[in-house]
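Re: the 127-residue chain
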Amino acid sequence: MRTATRMRAGRTHRDPRASRGIVLAIVLVMIFALITAVYAFQRTAIIDATISNNRLESAEADGLAKGGLRIAEVLVAIVRAKNLEATAGAGDSNATPALNLPLGSSGGGGGGGGGSGGESIDALWQG
């Protein structure tokens, strides 16, 4: 009987209410951890969407800038061609020979000139 008494004396009997309190604390910590994780994932998703949007807008701006440069290049080429035509028509002996392009509507021949396609350079900008 002494051994049975010693075994009972060595064990401590816990109250079921105390274990319920521990489970509640563990559940609350787990809920807090899950809420924190969801918040972090949501914030990461928002940041990723912002980065993606910024890259898209950057690509659009780059394309528009390059297009603007191309338009400026064409306009400079048109002005140079018209200046060469005017200089060659004035009989200046130092002038560079005129390009063989149908320019504007002021050239002789009225439209069907020697260029391929039969359109003047000004017609490019008329739509």
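The chain has two helices and no strands.
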